[in-house]
């Protein structure tokens, strides 16, 4: 029901910046929340940041003050602005749509394919 396409990943030196984008195939205003998660090799996937359809945001402690999640409802897109990048930020970053309506008392979650972010020291 919802296709998510991430872009903007790449290779950057420590201290640099990147902006990730996630384009959704339907209005993100109709989705309860969207967010960014990441998974490094050999590690569990972890939450990076989320934003609700009401505009509330939540961040992992490890990225507070460095990353900013935002949305553009007209473009059905969310962004993750990443500043002061560190080598430990290296991971595949995934976009996620949460609470997509699928009928009475039903909702579904969707994942994007992911985009690689590599931060060199």
Describe this structure in words.
It is built from no helices and eleven strands. Strand 7 and strand 8 form a beta hairpin. The chain is elongated. The protein is mainly β and 121 residues long. The chain has strands spanning 4-7, 10-13, 18-24, 31-39, 46-52, 57-59, 67-72, 77-82, 91-101, 107-111, 115-120. 0% of the residues lie in helices and 56% in strands. The strands form two sheets. Strands 2, 4, 5, 6, 9, 10 and 11 form a seven-stranded mixed β-sheet that branches.
Quick synopsis:
The chain contains no helices and 11 strands. It is an all-beta fold and 121 residues long. The termini are far apart.
Give the low-pLDDT segments. Answer: none
What is the radius of gyration? 14 Å
Secondary-structure element series: EEEEEEEEEEE
Shape: elongated
- Please report the total strand number as a whole number: 11
- How many strands, which pairing sense, and closed or not: the largest β-sheet? 7 strands, mixed
Average pLDDT value?
95
Helix content: under 10%
Fraction in beta strands: over 45%
Look at the helices and sheets and give the structural class.
Answer: mainly beta
**Count of separate DSSP helical elements:** 0
Distance between the termini: 40 Å
Key traits:
121 residues, mainly beta, seven-stranded mixed β-sheet, four-stranded antiparallel β-sheet, 11 strands, 0% helix, elongated
Topology:
Blueprint (H helix, E strand, L loop, with lengths): L3 E4 L2 E4 L4 E7 L6 E9 L6 E7 L4 E3 L7 E6 L4 E6 L8 E11 L5 E5 L3 E6 L1
Parallel strand pairs: 2-11
Antiparallel strand pairs: 1-3, 3-8, 4-5, 4-9, 5-6, 7-8, 9-10, 9-11
